[in-house]
Amino acid sequence: MARKSMIRRPGRNPSPARGKGKGGWRQPGPDPLNRAQRAAINAVVTDVLAAERARPTRADRDRRAERGPAAALFGLGNTTTAAPTVPTGPGGPGRAAEQARRDRIRAGRAARRWPFKATAATAAAGYGAWGAAELAEVAAGPAGHLLASTTIGTLALGAAATVGAAYRKRIGAWRRHYWCATCGAASWITLTSIDGAGWGLLATLVAGAAAVSTGWLRAHEVPVPPVEQPDVAVPPVTAGCELDTLAARWATEVAGNPKLAPDSALTDGRQHGNHCEYTLELAAGMTLGKLRGLQEGIASAMRLDPMQLTFAPAPAGAHGFRDSSKVAVQIILSSPITGPVYWREPAFTYSGGFGRIGLGPYIDGEAQAAYELFRPRGMFSGVVIGSTGKGKSSVVNGIVVSARSSGMVTTWYLDPKGNSSPDLARHATVSEIGLERAEAFTVAAETLVRWLGKQAAANNQAGFAPSADRPGYLIVIDECDMLFAIKGMAQRWGQLAKTGRSLGLSLLLATQYAGMTAFGGSELLRSSVRVGNVVLMRTESNTSDALIAPDLPKSTTLPSAPGYAYLKNEGAAPAALKNSWLLTSDEPTPECFPDELADYNADVALAAHPDAAMCPIGAKAAQLLTEVGGQEREETRAARLRDEIARFLAAPLPAPAATPAGSGPAEPAPVLAGMGARFTALPGPLAPVVPLHPETAVETAPAAASASLDPNALPGAQRAVLAALNAGHTKSGEIGHATGLAAATVSRALTALGEHGLAQRRGFGEWTATDGDQQQAS
Q1: Does 208 fall in a domain?
Q2: What integer best gives the mean pLDDT of the chain?
Q3: Do 353 and 327 reside in the same domain of the chain?
Q4: Which of 387, 389, 710, 753 could pair covalently with 758 via S-S, beta carbons 3.0-4.6 A apart?
Q5: Is the pTM of this model over 0.85?
Q6: Is 484 in contact with 421 (CB distance < 8 Å)?
Q7: What is the mean pLDDT of residues 708-718?
Q8: Are the beta carbons of 381 and 477 closer than 8 angstroms?
């Protein structure tokens, strides 16, 4: 006997209830309930079913069983102020009914797409069969075409029978519709393979699909009118009921919204001062990263500022692993930080190998955010990112002053822009201004790291511990994107950041861009700096933050006021902080500043906390730079810059020579004389050929170039290489051994000396100084 389907066919009414009589059939009896009583029972059953849908599943109760029997039964924590996980009151069943309606809408829309998908698949199969039959006819003639068409029809019917047998239980009452549709589709595919797909067959396919799918579409209509439910007013957060109010608001506005964090629950609620802490249990598939990406939407649903919400990984259990389905949530109710925080004194602590610098309080006012400069056996780098006017210079100045106050740090400073921080340029032990000094500064840093590594190997040291005799070197690079835009520079500084970490050298980068542009596109530099500290202030980018600090919220969640930031390092919390405000010397004092701090700025603070004395290797490496030494350095730099400006204004700009009518081509004039006449002007199509080798162009006037250029004005690396040439060292390897410079640095210095006419190449890897230079040196 065939098994009857348990699925009600569309358009049929269920059989009436019958009471038992002859033959075992149940005969209908009198109804003991009137219409009002029956309606009341139906309403009760509807509410019970709605509440049952909103209750946690067995898996959820098993996860909470470790907190006690009460938690397993009712979904509550073992604290006295546990937050409810299911909304109670009149809004609970209504919310569940609304969610059930949305589920029905999604299921109905998915079901209504099936006829269209099947029609499209049939059309695609028909065109494919047509092409296969045409190929068979080309290969084997009419017999091949007939064989291909027969095979295609058989395969189509076999596929329909296989699918029908595999899904016979799911097809249920729609078996007749299914077989009509599949047989028609197989016939259409076979006809298409025989005669080709014309407009008539396409019209037949569309009409047949519409006729077969009419009953299916009628049975799967999408419910349009919403479920009537009373408006549930979201209670405001008031003193004494914050825990329950926030948990109920999360359950109704966040957990009930499929676009935010559906099926999540706040548990284990507890209040500490001005903030509440919860354990958030996530639904399957939700992660902490996705939750942070939804922070702005969740804050809007909770009627909070995005800064009031923080999400962090839950602590690990007794087994040493953490449950990734749980997240620690902190909601700040009020912040004592309502105005500016003033920088009053350095904030540096050193304990257990950790050297930390206080930046300012977190917005909950209960802890200080700390920049980690030293860790056991190393010195770590950092980057400060922020748009103009967000307080980036104040953060950098505060870090440098606090680091110098320890007596175990020496600062080097490079400003490619030229006027980013005059205070740091004035007080740093080594400082360079402008991009033209970038190469010399980089060579000096490379020399420092190379010889510090040799010293550590000679002393059998595996790490670095700062002291007054062996201080750490903090290299500050302002507007670093300008420096790293130079070809190869980002990779060289990435090697310095990676190698110098265990040798007592760290970088402090400052930039306005929160993308790979700030690191010259170098992943080595980005990862070497990001492993230390990231201070993320507000920027105008919504996408680049994830490249630099994916563990932090978006910078656009910070206020537009200056001083707010997120900090990322091993000990930092994912919460906003307010940086202590340290004025620069050229910044006017605001009226809100206290009277005792009116004259206290970065210039005064840097002068009160000088750098530690450099070690002998650092002092030797600094000699490669031409401008070292306090006030004398500043005056020398200013004089040099004024002299360069005067020469630029006095010298005429090169202009293309005019060719008189009837005269021959003019002599080629150098376009860039400073490049050693490597490039020449081409006045016409018959201009002389430009020499391919710089040596050929330099040989024309080496004596004049050497007579006009003072060797003492060269950068340190070129001066050292020139001195080695004058001492009789001709091979590049000998010069590197005599000067202590790397082979690449020696090669660049020799090329530059050749362009200046101070050196000549004698062969492969062999150079000699020009006669004019030897006479000058003597």
Answers
A1: yes
A2: 76
A3: no
A4: 753
A5: no
A6: no
A7: 72
A8: no
- The answer to whether 376 and 355 have CB atoms below 8 angstroms apart is no
How confident is the model over 601-617, as a mean pLDDT? 91
Closest of 337, 261, 340, 280 to residue 576, by C-alpha: 337
Total count of domains within the chain: 4
Parent domain of 267: 242-332
pLDDT at 86 over 90: no
478 and 367 belong to one structural domain:
yes
Helices 438-458, 716-726: inter-axial angle, 10-degree rounding? 70
Q: Does 401 map to a domain?
A: yes
CATH number of residue 739's parent domain: 1.10.10
Predicted local distance difference test score (pLDDT) of residue 670: 41
* 664 vs 370 pLDDT, higher one: 370
Number of C-beta neighbours around residue 516 at 10 A: 18
**CATH number for the domain harbouring residue 610:** 3.40.50.300
Rounded to whole angstroms, the Cα distance separating 166 from 203 reads 31
Calculate the CA dihedral of residues 662, 667, 672, 674 and round it to 10 degrees: -160
Instruction: Let me know whether 431 and 546 are in one domain.
Output: yes
Mean pLDDT score, 486-502 = 92
Residue showing tokens 């609970």: 92
* CA–CA separation, 705 and 702 (whole Å): 5
Highest mean pLDDT among 129-138, 148-157, 161-170, 493-502 belongs to 493-502
Residue 39 lies in a domain: no
CA-nearest of 559, 577, 554 to 291 is 554
